[in-house]
TrEMBL record:
PANTHER family: FAT-BODY PROTEIN 1-RELATED, LARVAL STORAGE PROTEIN/PHENOLOXIDASE. Gene3D superfamilies: Di-copper center containing domain from catechol oxidase, Hemocyanin, C-terminal domain, Hemocyanin, N-terminal domain. Keywords: Signal. Residues 1-15 form the signal peptide. This is Tyrosinase copper-binding domain-containing protein. SUPFAM superfamilies: Di-copper centre-containing domain, E set domains, Hemocyanin, N-terminal domain. PROSITE patterns: HEMOCYANIN_1 (PS00209), HEMOCYANIN_2 (PS00210), TYROSINASE_2 (PS00498). The lineage of its organism: Eukaryota, Metazoa, Ecdysozoa, Arthropoda, Crustacea. It comes from Cherax quadricarinatus.
Length: 674
């Protein structure tokens, strides 16, 4: 999470925006930085539309003064050498993070930006390399740098679906957008989900193809990149492996809940030796590089040339399952790392993804990342047709393919094997002395609905400054819900104030055959709705928590247009900041998706509230004062000492333990959809 500290900066002078302020903000006001980032990302395939940035792009010499870099210019020398040797990927070509060479190039630029000590150096490099590196690499490097650099703590990144709309919008709509531009006719085009009603998967396409969900997924991977190297970047991403497990576990259980609501069976896990039943036709096109490849129904996995043999993936899976059975992984140097404890899930996440934190990538490989590529290439496994990468080779587009959820069900079941091997919590461990939940109710309806959402496609089409923009946008249907509040009455029988953690979950009451889930099966399917800290005074406490406050969700990011408008208004008013702080982190689940889609009779869920000992749980101070806490987007130490999903993360052999706890509450609720 980016800490919201308001800097009292003086607005920079107009002519040269950076050098009038020199402080730890890096020599520019937040509003100025926001302005620069807006324009760097506006129409990335064309000349930058800001005079100052244009001048920097033409005249800046990145190597001229290396005293402005925290690595003495090491990264910039490397990148400039690649540029001079003509080794960099051409512009107007597709880019995929899963392509090793392309990723290296994007990360070279990321390193230059990350090691820039002041804003002038950061923005000058961004403006200069915008003219020289591949546009996809540029966007990735700039997004990652803005997420991680200390210079950009208050910068809001424009919604990716308006920066690179091709990766979020159907080809049919993109074609209409080009037509509108060519004929200079404003146009508003409806986006339909891919496929026809003959495909049952179509019923849940609103989930995998939701632009907010795609943004959540891609932003999570920017916040916790698998390529992150502590030595290089200077700090550690706390509990990255466990977070990898949790964010995808939540996507998995949320998708199954949406399926239930649409009369579909839960996702089956992917199996290397079984048929991939569902094909996929993405109806999505690259800006440069043609259509995303399709995959027919009922194909068997084939080895992918230059990437992996299916046999080798099975071997990697067996090694990981062996480690789980043994309770330890074997590190690169032959020593063992115990995973038979709360921290084990973190190690296992690093191993399975894999990230640079994996203790032994030589032995355990990179099951998840390789699986993404192998599955993405099944339409052209031997490269016979020279097709560009598949949707699974981009975090922006992955969830569009239902096979993404099969792949993650497979990963999730491996994680479950580990979690199930841990000793269940005892009643004593789960109790919160003197604290009892008196009652839980919901104020307002639990009701979902579909609404239209419009976003701009102006950045999808080519143009020149000589041709005026016409308004081009698309309208998509998307899931939302009415606002509601949780009302939780808690009795604190201690004679003093205590800090409490409130954890709220919901799991489907029945399975797809209308049979109630057992406690143990239900708790594994629990959707995390909220997690927050509060102080409990002695006596009765009435806690009211609004659905909009949920720590696992984020609001819609303002449109690119409105970001630009608000920034320019702030600058012309002489303000040093733009009032957009609540949008700084886009890493959570869209708040619209907080509860799964209901149905007309009311879909039953088990609502669960656990109030646990905040003092024992809290890893940092002052959590009860933090109202903008975001569980996915934190920087530094993860605030909760407990594992993700606590207290439902371990198997429950005897559910009476939970029902005997006075600090635990469960009741059935209904979610409607109208
Ligand atoms: Cu992912």
């Amino acid at each position: 999470m980016k800490v919201l500290v308001f800097c009292a900066l003086v607005a920079a002078a107009a002519a040269w925006p950076y050098d009038s302020v020199n402080d730890d903000a890096g020599g520019a006001s937040d509003a100025q930085k926001q302005h620069d980032v807006n324009y760097l990302l506006f129409k990335v395939y064309e000349d930058v539309r800001d005079e100052n940035l244009h001048k920097l792009g033409e005249t800046f010499d990145p190597e001229a003064d290396t005293s402005h870099y925290s690595d003495n210019g090491e990264a910039v020398h490397k990148l400039v050498k690649e540029l001079k040797d003509h080794r960099l990927l051409q512009q107007k070509h597709w880019f995929s993070l899963f392509n090793t060479r392309q990723r290296e190039e994007a990360l070279l630029l990321y390193d230059v930006l990350e090691h820039s000590n002041d804003w002038q150096t950061f923005v000058s490099n961004a403006a200069y390399f915008r003219n020289h590196v591949n546009e996809g690499e540029f966007v990735y490097a700039l997004y990652a740098a803005v997420v991680h650099s200390s210079l950009t703590k208050h910068v809001v990144l424009p919604p990716l679906y308006e920066v690179t709309p091709h990766l979020f919008t159907n080809s049919e709509v993109i074609q209409e957008a080009y037509h509108a531009k060519m004929t200079q006719t404003p146009g508003k085009f409806r986006s339909h989900f891919t496929g026809s009603k003959k495909n049952p998967e179509q019923r849940v396409a609103y989930f995998g193809e939701d632009i907010g969900l795609n943004t959540h997924h891609v932003t999570w991977h920017l916040e916790f990149p698998f390529w992150w190297n502590d030595k290089h970047e200077g700090y550690h991403l706390d509990r990255k492996g466990e977070n990898f497990f949790w964010v995808h576990h939540q996507l998995t259980v949320r998708f199954d809940a949406e399926r239930l609501s649409n009369h579909l069976d839960p996702v089956n896990e992917l199996h290397w030796e079984a048929t991939i039943e569902e094909g996929f036709a993405p109806h999505t096109t690259y800006k440069y590089g043609g259509e995303f490849p399709s995959r027919p129904d009922n194909i068997h996995f084939e080895d992918v040339d230059g990437i992996a043999h299916i046999r080798d993936l099975i071997i990697l899976e067996n090694r990981i399952r062996d480690a789980i059975a043994h309770g330890y992984v074997t590190a690169h140097d032959g020593s063992t790392v115990d995973i038979n404890n709360s921290h084990g899930i973190d190690v296992l996440g690093d191993v399975i993804e894999s990230s640079t934190y994996s203790p032994n990538v030589e032995y355990y490989g990179s099951l998840h990342n390789t699986a993404h590529i192998v599955l993405g290439r099944q339409g052209d496994p031997h490269g016979k047709y020279d097709l560009p990468p598949g949707v699974l080779e981009h975090f922006e587009t992955s969830t569009r393919d239902p096979a993404f959820f099969r792949l993650h069900k497979y990963m999730d079941n491996i994680f479950r094997e580990h979690k199930d091997s841990l000793t269940p919590y005892t009643k004593e461990e789960l109790e919160f002395s003197g604290v009892a939940i008196d009652g839980v109710s919901i104020d307002g309806p639990l009701e979902t609905f579909f609404e239209d959402f419009e976003y701009s496609l102006v950045n999808a089409v080519d143009d020149t400054p000589q041709v005026a923009d016409v308004a081009i946008s698309t309208v998509v249907s998307r899931l939302n819900h009415k606002d509601f509040s949780f009302k939780i009455d808690v009795n604190n029988n201690n004679d003093h104030e205590v800090l409490a953690t409130v954890r709220i979950f919901a799991w489907p009451h029945n399975d797809n055959n209308d049979i109630p889930y057992s406690f143990n099966e239900g708790r594994w399917r629990a959707i995390e709705l909220d997690r927050f800290w509060t102080k409990l005074s002695p006596g009765v406490n009435h806690i009211v928590r609004k659905s909009t406050e949920s720590a696992v969700t984020v609001p819609d990011v303002p449109s690119f247009d409105s970001l630009i408008e608000r920034t320019e208004a702030a600058l012309s008013a002489g303000s040093s900041e733009v009032d957009i702080h609540e949008f700084v982190s886009a890493v959570g689940v869209p708040n619209r998706f907080l509860i799964p889609k209901g149905n007309s009779e009311g879909l039953e869920f088990e609502l669960v509230v656990a109030v646990t000992d905040g003092k024992a749980d809290a890893a940092v101070e002052g959590l009860h004062e933090n109202t903008v806490f975001n569980h996915y987007g934190y920087h530094g130490v993860y605030p909760d000492n407990r594992p993700h999903g606590y207290p439902l993360d371990r198997r429950v052999d005897d559910e009476r333990i939970f029902h005997d706890l006075s600090n635990f509450h469960q009741h059935t609720v209904k979610i409607y959809n109208h």
